[in-house]
Protein backbone atom coordinates (compact mmCIF):
# COMPACT_ATOMS: atom_id res chain seq x y z
CA UNK A 1 0.00 0.00 0.00
CA UNK A 2 1.45 3.38 -1.05
CA UNK A 3 1.35 6.02 1.61
CA UNK A 4 0.51 9.61 0.62
CA UNK A 5 3.49 11.92 0.46
CA UNK A 6 4.03 13.90 3.63
CA UNK A 7 3.78 17.63 3.09
CA UNK A 8 6.25 19.85 4.93
CA UNK A 9 4.82 22.01 7.66
CA UNK A 10 3.74 25.40 6.39
CA UNK A 11 5.78 28.23 7.85
CA UNK A 12 4.42 31.74 8.08
CA UNK A 13 5.74 34.14 5.50
CA UNK A 14 7.78 36.95 7.07
CA UNK A 15 6.89 40.34 5.59
CA UNK A 16 10.53 41.24 4.96
CA UNK A 17 9.74 44.32 2.90
CA UNK A 18 7.29 45.66 5.45
CA UNK A 19 9.80 45.09 8.25
CA UNK A 20 12.50 46.93 6.34
CA UNK A 21 10.25 49.91 5.72
CA UNK A 22 9.15 49.92 9.36
CA UNK A 23 12.76 50.23 10.54
CA UNK A 24 13.24 53.12 8.13
CA UNK A 25 10.00 54.78 9.24
CA UNK A 26 11.03 54.51 12.88
CA UNK A 27 14.41 56.07 12.15
CA UNK A 28 12.80 58.88 10.17
CA UNK A 29 10.39 59.62 13.01
CA UNK A 30 13.36 60.26 15.30
CA UNK A 31 15.38 62.25 12.78
CA UNK A 32 14.41 65.84 13.68
CA UNK A 33 17.67 66.61 15.57
CA UNK A 34 19.85 65.17 12.79
CA UNK A 35 17.87 67.02 10.13
CA UNK A 36 18.50 70.27 12.00
CA UNK A 37 22.22 69.49 12.19
CA UNK A 38 22.45 68.54 8.50
CA UNK A 39 20.71 71.79 7.57
CA UNK A 40 23.17 73.75 9.69
CA UNK A 41 26.09 71.94 8.09
CA UNK A 42 24.76 72.86 4.65
CA UNK A 43 24.45 76.53 5.56
CA UNK A 44 27.95 76.59 7.05
CA UNK A 45 29.31 74.78 4.02
CA UNK A 46 27.87 77.43 1.69
CA UNK A 47 30.07 80.06 3.31
CA UNK A 48 33.14 77.83 3.36
CA UNK A 49 32.92 76.65 -0.23
CA UNK A 50 32.19 80.08 -1.68
CA UNK A 51 35.24 81.28 0.25
CA UNK A 52 37.45 78.79 -1.59
CA UNK A 53 37.41 75.81 0.77
CA UNK A 54 37.41 72.24 -0.49
CA UNK A 55 35.36 69.32 0.80
CA UNK A 56 36.68 65.77 0.93
CA UNK A 57 34.52 62.77 1.77
CA UNK A 58 35.28 59.15 2.55
CA UNK A 59 33.73 55.90 3.67
CA UNK A 60 33.83 52.16 3.05
CA UNK A 61 31.38 50.06 1.05
CA UNK A 62 27.94 51.63 1.03
CA UNK A 63 29.34 54.63 2.85
CA UNK A 64 31.82 55.11 -0.01
CA UNK A 65 28.84 55.33 -2.36
CA UNK A 66 27.27 57.94 -0.08
CA UNK A 67 30.51 59.94 -0.01
CA UNK A 68 30.63 59.94 -3.81
CA UNK A 69 26.97 60.94 -3.93
CA UNK A 70 27.72 64.01 -1.82
CA UNK A 71 30.72 65.12 -3.87
CA UNK A 72 28.75 64.63 -7.09
CA UNK A 73 26.01 66.93 -5.78
CA UNK A 74 28.59 69.61 -4.96
CA UNK A 75 30.62 69.45 -8.16
CA UNK A 76 27.43 69.11 -10.18
CA UNK A 77 24.29 70.41 -8.53
CA UNK A 78 21.52 69.35 -6.15
CA UNK A 79 18.41 71.10 -7.53
CA UNK A 80 19.08 74.58 -8.79
CA UNK A 81 21.90 75.54 -11.12
CA UNK A 82 24.87 77.20 -9.44
CA UNK A 83 28.65 77.33 -9.65
CA UNK A 84 30.54 74.05 -9.08
CA UNK A 85 32.39 73.54 -5.82
CA UNK A 86 35.59 71.61 -5.12
CA UNK A 87 34.72 68.22 -3.62
CA UNK A 88 36.66 64.95 -3.77
CA UNK A 89 35.62 61.41 -2.79
CA UNK A 90 38.85 59.88 -1.54
CA UNK A 91 37.98 56.26 -2.29
CA UNK A 92 37.56 57.11 -5.98
CA UNK A 93 41.30 57.71 -6.39
CA UNK A 94 41.88 54.00 -6.94
CA UNK A 95 45.56 54.08 -7.90
CA UNK A 96 46.44 56.37 -5.01
CA UNK A 97 44.30 54.41 -2.55
CA UNK A 98 45.74 51.02 -3.47
CA UNK A 99 49.32 52.32 -3.56
CA UNK A 100 48.96 53.94 -0.14
CA UNK A 101 47.35 50.90 1.47
CA UNK A 102 50.00 48.65 -0.08
CA UNK A 103 52.91 50.80 1.10
CA UNK A 104 51.61 52.24 4.35
CA UNK A 105 48.77 49.96 5.48
CA UNK A 106 44.98 50.06 5.39
CA UNK A 107 44.58 52.72 8.07
CA UNK A 108 46.48 55.29 5.96
CA UNK A 109 44.35 54.88 2.82
CA UNK A 110 42.17 57.94 3.39
CA UNK A 111 44.33 59.80 5.90
CA UNK A 112 47.31 60.29 3.60
CA UNK A 113 45.10 61.51 0.76
CA UNK A 114 43.30 63.88 3.10
CA UNK A 115 46.62 65.29 4.25
CA UNK A 116 47.66 65.80 0.61
CA UNK A 117 44.46 67.39 -0.69
CA UNK A 118 43.29 69.60 2.18
CA UNK A 119 44.40 72.80 3.84
CA UNK A 120 43.30 74.48 7.09
CA UNK A 121 39.73 75.68 6.69
CA UNK A 122 38.66 72.81 4.43
CA UNK A 123 35.97 70.30 5.41
CA UNK A 124 35.98 66.51 5.68
CA UNK A 125 32.72 64.54 5.76
CA UNK A 126 33.51 61.03 6.98
CA UNK A 127 30.97 58.21 7.00
CA UNK A 128 31.01 54.95 8.94
CA UNK A 129 27.91 53.01 9.92
CA UNK A 130 29.78 51.40 12.82
CA UNK A 131 31.70 54.52 13.72
CA UNK A 132 34.74 52.34 14.21
CA UNK A 133 36.28 51.89 10.75
CA UNK A 134 40.02 52.32 11.43
CA UNK A 135 40.82 54.02 8.12
CA UNK A 136 37.98 56.52 8.57
CA UNK A 137 38.86 57.23 12.21
CA UNK A 138 42.49 57.83 11.24
CA UNK A 139 41.34 60.23 8.51
CA UNK A 140 39.38 62.13 11.16
CA UNK A 141 42.47 62.36 13.36
CA UNK A 142 44.51 63.66 10.43
CA UNK A 143 41.81 66.20 9.62
CA UNK A 144 41.78 67.58 13.14
CA UNK A 145 45.58 67.74 13.21
CA UNK A 146 45.60 69.69 9.95
CA UNK A 147 42.99 72.29 10.87
CA UNK A 148 40.33 70.67 8.68
CA UNK A 149 36.77 70.74 10.02
CA UNK A 150 35.63 67.13 10.48
CA UNK A 151 31.97 66.12 10.32
CA UNK A 152 31.09 62.49 10.99
CA UNK A 153 28.04 60.49 9.94
CA UNK A 154 27.67 57.21 11.80
CA UNK A 155 25.24 54.73 13.27
CA UNK A 156 24.71 54.60 17.00
CA UNK A 157 26.92 56.89 19.05
CA UNK A 158 29.06 57.66 20.83
CA UNK A 159 31.77 55.77 19.00
CA UNK A 160 35.41 56.16 17.98
CA UNK A 161 34.61 58.44 15.05
CA UNK A 162 32.23 60.76 16.91
CA UNK A 163 34.84 61.12 19.66
CA UNK A 164 37.37 62.52 17.17
CA UNK A 165 35.09 64.58 14.90
CA UNK A 166 34.19 68.23 15.42
CA UNK A 167 30.51 67.41 14.99
CA UNK A 168 28.51 64.28 14.21
CA UNK A 169 25.19 62.95 12.97
CA UNK A 170 24.26 59.59 14.48
CA UNK A 171 21.44 57.28 13.45
CA UNK A 172 20.27 55.12 16.34
CA UNK A 173 19.38 52.02 14.36
CA UNK A 174 20.95 48.56 14.72
CA UNK A 175 20.56 47.92 10.99
CA UNK A 176 23.30 48.99 8.59
CA UNK A 177 20.86 49.41 5.70
CA UNK A 178 18.69 51.78 7.72
CA UNK A 179 21.70 53.85 8.77
CA UNK A 180 22.83 54.16 5.16
CA UNK A 181 19.35 55.12 3.98
CA UNK A 182 19.10 57.84 6.61
CA UNK A 183 22.57 59.05 5.72
CA UNK A 184 21.42 59.58 2.13
CA UNK A 185 18.39 61.55 3.32
CA UNK A 186 20.62 63.68 5.55
CA UNK A 187 23.12 64.30 2.75
CA UNK A 188 20.27 65.62 0.62
CA UNK A 189 19.13 67.78 3.54
CA UNK A 190 22.69 69.12 3.79
CA UNK A 191 22.62 70.00 0.08
CA UNK A 192 19.22 71.66 0.47
CA UNK A 193 20.60 73.74 3.34
CA UNK A 194 23.56 74.77 1.22
CA UNK A 195 21.33 75.83 -1.68
CA UNK A 196 19.01 77.73 0.67
CA UNK A 197 21.94 79.66 2.10
CA UNK A 198 23.30 80.45 -1.35
CA UNK A 199 19.86 81.71 -2.40
CA UNK A 200 19.61 83.87 0.73
CA UNK A 201 23.04 85.37 0.07
CA UNK A 202 22.13 86.07 -3.54
CA UNK A 203 18.88 87.75 -2.47
CA UNK A 204 20.69 89.82 0.14
CA UNK A 205 23.20 90.92 -2.46
CA UNK A 206 20.41 91.86 -4.88
CA UNK A 207 18.78 94.00 -2.24
TrEMBL record:
<dbReference type="InterPro" id="IPR035461">
    <property type="entry name" value="GmhA/DiaA"/>
</dbReference>
<feature type="domain" description="SIS">
    <location>
        <begin position="45"/>
        <end position="200"/>
    </location>
</feature>
<protein>
    <submittedName>
        <fullName>SIS domain-containing protein</fullName>
    </submittedName>
</protein>
<dbReference type="InterPro" id="IPR001347">
    <property type="entry name" value="SIS_dom"/>
</dbReference>
<dbReference type="Pfam" id="PF13580">
    <property type="entry name" value="SIS_2"/>
</dbReference>
<dbReference type="InterPro" id="IPR046348">
    <property type="entry name" value="SIS_dom_sf"/>
</dbReference>
<dbReference type="InterPro" id="IPR050099">
    <property type="entry name" value="SIS_GmhA/DiaA_subfam"/>
</dbReference>
Amino acid sequence: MTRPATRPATRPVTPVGAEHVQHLTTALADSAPTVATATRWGRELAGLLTGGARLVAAGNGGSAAQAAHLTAELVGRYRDDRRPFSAVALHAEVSALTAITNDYGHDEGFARQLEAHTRPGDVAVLLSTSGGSPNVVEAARRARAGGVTCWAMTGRGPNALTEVADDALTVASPFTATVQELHLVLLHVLCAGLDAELDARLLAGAE
